[in-house]
């Protein structure tokens, strides 16, 4: 008889029972002369001892500016060395770091500042075509809690100088009063409707998550980890920064935002051993016209996360980028983020077709979303997560917290997943993404996996669009490989006889790019909006 869909990440290694600052101090004591942080676009390099000293100066500067334990300090910037330093400086003070999305406009910035009560904001002068200073000036009068802002580009040295009058003893006294269950970070999740919610995370949440995600990749102090994902997101600041500093590894930042050429150049120049990205990032690197010029042989492991990775893409990553020990991670901001992860020694099929088993010290179950009861292994349902990694809650939003975390402590993810007989989890879609065509439930992920096997298809995303007859119809957005000349008829013909007729897309749209979040996730809700508008004009 099949087992219920439940798995526990039993682990002989105990959870870390300390703060982020205390953990960094221990790493500095062990690996002080090893490189800790390299930011190539700023020509910045620091050993662990140099990073520790800069973090201390920054923490003292924040104290001099009136920052106290529990205060909210916002950071609005693309990937820069200052972002990393502020992450650890606020942790040493027990101030709550509020991650501000670099893509935010005025309305979103105003909401995040006011909802979290940010009292001090560190911001870049701007990013891409956005003038952050002008945007802040537009909303500042409507942000009563914001007492001060500092522009990193011009006032960073001023912040460091301000801390000269704060002693080491004062800083140590502040640190000594901190508890590892204290909230330390607010990250705003990207909702598809309404305003985002602020997932509130503790030292214990994110320090352990970084540490154990690194454990599954077998990190040592010799790793050099290329981190092209944004720091404002859990992927960058937890799986990136905290995974490295908890192990004595080196964080290597190729550019302030994702650039596939900069990633390839950085891996070669810095002899990186690990590489991170969401599937669209790896696809962009693999398909770059200069890909063959670069020596990526130093690579061994890394993380692909943020969205389900098509099997064919995963195979290319392993075979062409030397990432023989690449791991797949599944999670969400509310789970710090890692909930499941593959191991480096898992069977090949499990590594490319699943997102692994429950992470160390984490429980996973899959339930019938209608009844809340466990389903048997092999049966799709909603994935739920419980453990040290589940957030404290949404900041100042008890109602939303109660909807997300049930009375038994399970975080309901919204992911539609299947657990196999060995406990490995496969994500088959989002519950809200399931296409219901004439009573048939269609998983977009299943159709996407098939389309990626067609020669000439570089990337495919599948959505449901309104249909008067069937309720919904299947639509595929397709990006072709360079030189490919496939038509909708060609793709449709390739599907006939190989997938069920009702799963074959009725509508096809050829694109050069997909609407993406700053983290590189495809915005399917935006695709549905665009498609609905285009189809309506044709009727």
Written account of the structure:
This protein has 539 residues and is α/β, with parallel strands linked by helices. It has two domains: 17-419, 3-Layer(aba) Sandwich (Rossmann fold), CATH 3.40.50; 434-538, GMP Synthetase, Chain A, domain 3 (2-Layer Sandwich). Helix content is 33%, strand content 25%. The strands form six sheets. A nine-stranded mixed beta sheet has the order 3-2-13-12-14-15-16-17-18, with helices on both faces. Helix 8 crosses helix 9. The chain is globular and about 75 Å long. The termini are far apart. The mean pLDDT is 94.
Question: Which characteristics define this entry?
Answer:
nine-stranded mixed β-sheet; single chain; 2 domains; Rossmann fold; GMP Synthetase, Chain A, domain 3; alpha/beta; seven-stranded mixed β-sheet
Broad shape? globular
Tally of discrete structural domains: 2
Q: What is the correct CATH architecture of the largest domain?
A: 3-Layer(aba) Sandwich
Count of alpha and pi helical runs: 17
Largest sheet: 9 strands, mixed
CATH superfamily of the largest domain: ANL, N-terminal domain
Compute the number of strand runs: 28
Strand order of the largest sheet: 3-2-13-12-14-15-16-17-18
What helical percentage do the residues reach? 25-40%
Give the CATH topology of the largest domain.
Rossmann fold
Overall mean pLDDT: 94
Distance, first to last CA = 52 Å
Tell me briefly what this model is.
The chain is an alpha/beta fold. The protein is built from 17 helices and 28 strands. It starts with 5 loop residues before the first strand and ends with a helix.
